[in-house]
């Protein structure tokens, strides 16, 4: 973690400003789930593992060649956004007042601020994110880790107050045993880095049923080719060969 002293126009030193530690800066700036350049011809080559020492991401194929003593963090994917399990993240940084979401029986935190529609970004009388105005449940103040960190920096608050000294054994390479991919077994399904069942237990969801993208709903499964059920029933009940004369003829 770096501390910088700012000087005013007269050269006098002002209060120290705590900068983001390298691992936090790298985690928030990294592009996850891009294809690994080293293993671009292999399956399951999405970069979803982050090294807290190297401050870089890599794919499961890179695990055997990575230093086993380095602490690692797994990033997961949910509704096209990067998330981290709360149990892992709260060992590194204070996640209080960041709204968690329960997915597959595990609570996760969104890593970065998410794009939102104009309607959902209009700040109303309800509770909303201090940074991006996304609607939140009480008593949360932030929708993602980056929103909390950016808010504290904007307010001039000391980031060291929310950073923890972590035990590197909690982030050992052994936790990724189910992510290892053998060269002869590229088709094997790896660990659930991309979270499934996107609507199960999604607390405070702003997504509609069906497609996980905002504003796209699920079609009615009972509809058939655009015919209304009443029309289909009347057509099926008509007797074959029986004349249907006009009442005035």
Description:
- With about 250 residues, this protein is of the alpha+beta class.
- The longest helix has 10 residues, at about 145-155.
- It is globular.
- It contains five helices and nine strands, in the order ββαβββββαββααα.
- The strands form three sheets. A four-stranded antiparallel sheet has the order 6-7-9-8.
- About 15% of the residues lie in helices and about 15% in strands.
- The termini are far apart.
> How does the helix and strand content classify structurally?
alpha+beta
% residues in beta strands: 5-15%
Oligomer: single chain
Number of E-type strands = 9
**Which sequence of strands runs across the widest sheet?**
6-7-9-8
Radius of gyration: 26 Å
The largest sheet is: 4 strands, antiparallel
Terminal residue distance: 94 Å
3D shape: globular
Which bin fits the share of residues in helices?
10-25%
Helix-strand pattern? EEHEEEEEHEEHHH
Average predicted local confidence, pLDDT: 74
How many helices? 5
Poorly predicted ranges: 185-192, 196-236
């Amino acid at each position: 973690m770096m501390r910088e002293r700012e000087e005013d126009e007269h050269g006098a030193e002002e209060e120290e400003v705590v900068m983001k530690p390298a691992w936090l800066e790298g985690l928030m700036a990294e592009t996850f789930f891009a294809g690994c350049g080293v293993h671009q011809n292999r399956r399951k080559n999405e970069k979803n593992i982050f090294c807290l020492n190297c401050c870089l991401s890599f794919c499961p194929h890179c695990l055997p060649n990575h230093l086993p003593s380095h602490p690692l963090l797994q990033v997961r994917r949910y509704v096209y956004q990067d998330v981290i399990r709360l149990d892992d993240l709260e060992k590194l940084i204070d996640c209080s007042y960041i709204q968690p979401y329960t997915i597959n029986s595990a609570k996760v935190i969104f890593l970065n601020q998410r794009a939102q529609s104009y309607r959902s970004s209009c700040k109303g009388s309800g509770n909303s994110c201090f940074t991006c105005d996304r609607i939140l449940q009480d008593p949360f103040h932030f929708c993602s880790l980056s929103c909390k960190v950016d808010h504290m920096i904007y307010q001039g608050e000391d980031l060291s107050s929310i950073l923890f000294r972590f035990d590197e054994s909690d982030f050992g390479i052994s936790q990724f045993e189910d992510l290892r991919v053998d060269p002869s077994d590229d088709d094997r399904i790896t660990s659930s880095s991309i979270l499934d069942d996107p609507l199960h237990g999604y607390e405070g969801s702003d997504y509609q049923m069906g497609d996980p993208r905002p504003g796209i709903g699920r079609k009615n499964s009972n509809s058939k080719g655009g015919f209304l059920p009443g029309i289909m029933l009347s057509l099926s009940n008509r007797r074959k060969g029986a004349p249907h004369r006009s009442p005035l003829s």
